[in-house]
Amino acid sequence: MATEEVRQEILKTLDEGVVEYEEDQVKEAAQRALDEGVNAYDAVMNGLAAGMEKVGNLYDQQEYFVPELLMCADALYIGLDILKPHITVEDLGDKPKGQVVIGTVQGDVHDIGKNIIKLMFEVAGFTVHDLGRDVPLEQFVEEQLRTDSEIVALSAMMTTTMMGMKKVIEMIRERNPNVAIMLGGAPVTKDTADLFGADGYAETAGNAVQEAIKMISQLRQMQA
Fold first, then answer.
1. Does residue 146 contact residue 107 with C-beta atoms inside 8 Å?
2. How many Å from the N-terminal Cα to the C-terminal Cα in the chain?
3. CATH at 12
4. Which residues in the chain land under pLDDT 70?
5. Model pTM?
6. Of 93, 179, 177, 70, which is closest to residue 129 (Cα–Cα)?
7. Strand 200-202 to 180-184 pairing
8. Could you give the CA distance from residue 64 to residue 2 in angstroms, rounded to a whole number?
9. Residue 25 CB coordination number (10 Å)
10. Where are the alpha helices (DSSP H) in the chain?
11. Do 13 and 100 belong to one domain?
12. 121: nearest Cα among 10, 202, 29, 67
């Protein structure tokens, strides 16, 4: 097992490697985490994911733009490829976490945020059904019914496409009132999510997983 000092140093190197889109640095630090006995889930969540959250903030503050986001995401994927196979069931807790249908709503081709959230779900042990971007609204409903997923996560990056979320929520509620629906994306606020009748709203990628786990435990209690 790594000492706390070594663990912190590795997490910091992973975090900074993602923020500075240094793929080699991330690759070396991820491998070192395994060699030094740092828990792989810890390295992902408190190293790679922590870095990606900072990247999200830099993007919000308009210090980073889409090209930087893509390079940071590449560095994140490299680290994940090395660490993810070493994440154990014990790390995730005993229960399977459930299923998520995720996609960016019709008319919207932005999918960087959605892809990061998807990664976080996968790392946290969810089964993810990714519909991609510019997804016809009915497809969310059909995929939820087909997979019986507990969560539908909708992303929109433009105010014009955000209204599509409201329609999807109405359509899903008609067919299956027990599904938890979660919204995310730059123009979406907690007020919007409440107004549209969503169950959860995620400001950040890490937040999305926390929200989803909360939502699934609420659903399971309701169904018990």
1. no
2. 40
3. 1.10.1240.10
4. 92-96, 205-206, 209, 213, 216, 219-220, 222-224
5. 0.74
6. 179
7. parallel
8. 34
9. 18
10. 4-19, 23-36, 40-43, 49-60, 66-83, 89-92, 112-123, 137-147, 159-175, 190-196, 205-223
11. no
12. 202
